[in-house]
Fold this sequence. Notes:
The protein is of the alpha/beta class. The chain folds into three domains: 1-34, no CATH class; 40-165, no CATH class; 181-301, no CATH class. The chain has 13 helices and five strands. It starts with a helix and ends with a strand.
Amino acid sequence: MHALIFHRDRLRTLLLLSALVVLINVPWIVWLSGMKYGQRYEGFFNLKRIAQFTYQYFSQIGRYVFHPLLLLIIPVASCGNWLKNKSFFIDLRRDRVFWSRLSLVLLFLISNLAALAVASPAPFFRYLAPLIPLLIILTAWLVDASSRINKVLAWALIAALLVTGSMKDFLYEITHDYDGPLEGIVKYLNEHGNHDDLAAITYGDMPLKFYTDMKIIGGLTGEDLAPARQAKWVILRQNLVCEKDRQVGLYLVQNLPLNSSDYYERITLDYPDIIYENREDPAQHHFRTVLDAGRVVIYRKIN
């Protein structure tokens, strides 16, 4: 759309590049074609669902990335321009470069949000990651516009953005250690276990497969739970993420004498057994180690 409006001379090149990108991704497209999204995610392409996702995406943007009050700079800048030039609007009709750049950003934002509202399985904040740099550019543009009215106003706006954001928490996070449940589990298993040990866990089996050399059995990979009867290490997480976690936990409790001190030793780690190690979603992200949660418990089979 942007090339069609502002750069028709480059439209042919753009179409060729787009075709090349599609061609490169053909294997991935073919592989994904076997997924039945409509069955996996109920309400897919439902108008009510699309409206809800649109609202939630805009809410997350307004809360964590681009506050709607920033748009007040536009009428303020217009008033400032009137005081200087006796005109509410800056004459941008001749500035084709300005409109080209602004429309490119806006078209990218709108098209991506529309695609996310229609096709995303859930309104996760991580799906907005490609939009964040452009929203920051828009914020910078508005701050620059305010600086042309009054330098003090611009600095006050910058200060407000820093104070009301998560900069303080972010600085704390990158300068302090953070302890999560999986870090504690991985560290303990690597220090006290052997590569030929078998470990069973209700949730978090994939990270353990990656960070340890042990044979790991859990719910996320959908493998047979029968070998878990011989597990040397058993971790029953305190939180359930999905039905698979409950089924794995029930199987382990019913088939292993975990409560018998003759068979299994109960080991408590000084790590919080929170539901996730951490989350990129600002609403669920922990900038500091959680101190008021239950501790991680590992059961070790007694030889």
